[in-house]
Amino acid sequence: MWKIAIVDDERQVLQGMKRAIPWEELEAEWAGEAMNGADGLEMIRSACPDIVITDIYMPVMNGLEMMEQLRKDGFPGKIIILSGYSDFEHARQALRFQVSDYVSKPISIPTLTAILTKVIQELAEEEDKRKRQGELELKMSLFEPFIEKEWVRSAAIGTLDPAYREDSHLPPPYRYWRERSHLTVGIDLLRDERAGCLSVSDWNLFRFAVSNIACEVARKPFPDVEYTELHSTRSLLILHPQPEDEGRELEKRLEELGIRLADSIGSYLKLAARIGIGGLKAEWTKISDSTEEAFRAIDQRAAKADAAYEVYLYREERGSQPESVVPFPVKLSYRLASAMKSSQEAEAHQLVQEYMAVLKQHKGISPAYVQMLASELWGIIAYSLYETGMLLDEWFTSDRIAREIGSLLVPEQLAGWLKGKITELCRSRQWKGNGKHRQVVEYMTGYIHEHYAEELTLAELSEKVFISRNHLSIIFKNVTGESFNTYLTRVRIEKARELLLERNMLVYEVAERVGYKNIPYFSTLFKKITGMNPTELIK
């Protein structure tokens, strides 16, 4: 209920207003009254009404003085001035206090009702806006940790937008990066015989365990650590050594950290892991270079720290890679995973093609290396789709994938096989039916069927489901097979056809009922979809 207070020095006006206001119709209630500005000020402070109706000329304290004090107090309610004087100067002064209306006495009941209705509508809209803003802020506060995680990952692999690669855009928890050096430690879980038996969902559990182990082990020698998952079997630690830690002593501590990581993952999870340590960087914007170096050290098996463990340090002098070793870049891997998550078939094909062009420049690529790449790339795809709720284990069994990979001997075969799998996945029914996306689209189609007559936009729905407009457009088309606008148009025309067949309304009335004010445009759409003019249907 909206609360309304009245301040006027004429008792007859007070009583008349209380009787005249249609309280039930406005869903409002009387909040209090006063006969001068001073008493009105205390009453309003106590009752906190939503609307104040006040006179200007009153004893002790006039209406303008009362309004000025209310606004100084931060009173957020609406104020309507009802005065026996049409004074321009007073009206001008009242504007400074955000007055909703200024009307002269006497006032008719219809006019009073109309003014109050308008003001209450403004209050309702403002409350709805505050509620939506509150929900958005709550949602953003819940998502903030995930947004920060994504920011860290983007910085680590080099996909951060250039506009954000400045110190001023560092999120508050990471502003200390400006005073530190940086390096990364790559963790790559081996797909050995035991690991090969794990399902994608099992891998997810093991990755969670790896994150706990890695952070616990790393924070002892390096208190400031971030951990981020990359894709499939790979993850990353970002370290920020103090300036005094640099030199041989730092290298020794990094070797010990790598050995402890490999040993702990092996002891607790019975998984084999390769550890790569990237080069030290003076600027945080170069962290992605250290990431590429960390995994390049793993792929090249360079500078092994200990004979008993697969821990490798990147060495600048050994940076040239053998002809037969062309690792899939971390940044490219992440882009491929993102493309598969959103079913971007063309983009995924392009990424594969870019890598194959690099691969063809190298001689001596062995069948074993081709098959290793195939296994890695399939792992990237499988895990990225698992994150969207799509499991590939039953659809593509491990035995089938192993047989297909075993038949790949040269890069051209790898490219063909990979593109075929990408196309099959992006166009499959299973992809289109994936749980999370289907739930979103079911909500959207239900909303369209309820609100088809309104001015619906994809941008409006994207705000309701907290998914970007472009991504939502892709999801909707993947699931329904048609664009949002095409689906909305089809629903409107189908509803129009039903109304026309009832023969209770004229064509222009039907058009307006389903959301079209332009009658010729409606008729054109109707004929395009149904094959006949709307007038033909009602003859």
Main pleated sheet? 6 strands, mixed
Distance between the termini: 50 Å
Could you state the CATH homologous superfamily of the largest domain? Reverse transcriptase/Diguanylate cyclase domain
Q: Could you name the CATH class of the largest domain?
A: Alpha Beta
Shape summary: flat
* Average of pLDDT: 82
Q: Which structural category do the helix and sheet elements fall into?
A: alpha/beta
CATH fold-level label of the largest domain: Alpha-Beta Plaits
CATH architecture of the largest domain: 2-Layer Sandwich
Strand order of the largest sheet: 7-8-6-9-11-10
**Which runs of at least 5 residues are low in confidence (pLDDT < 50)?**
140-146, 318-324
Total number of domains: 4
Fraction in helix: 55-70%
Beta fraction of the residues? Answer: 5-15%
- Our count of helices gives 22
Structure in words:
The chain is α/β, with parallel strands linked by helices. It has four domains: 127 residues, Rossmann fold, CATH 3.40.50; 163 residues, Reverse transcriptase/Diguanylate cyclase domain (Alpha-Beta Plaits, 2-Layer Sandwich); 95 residues, no CATH class; 103 residues, Arc Repressor Mutant, subunit A. The chain is 56% helix and 11% strand. It contains 22 helices and eleven strands. The strands form two sheets. The protein has a six-stranded mixed sheet with strand order 7-8-6-9-11-10, with helices on both faces. Strand 3, helix 4 and strand 4 form a beta-alpha-beta unit. The radius of gyration is 34 Å and the shape is flat. 30% of the residues are buried.
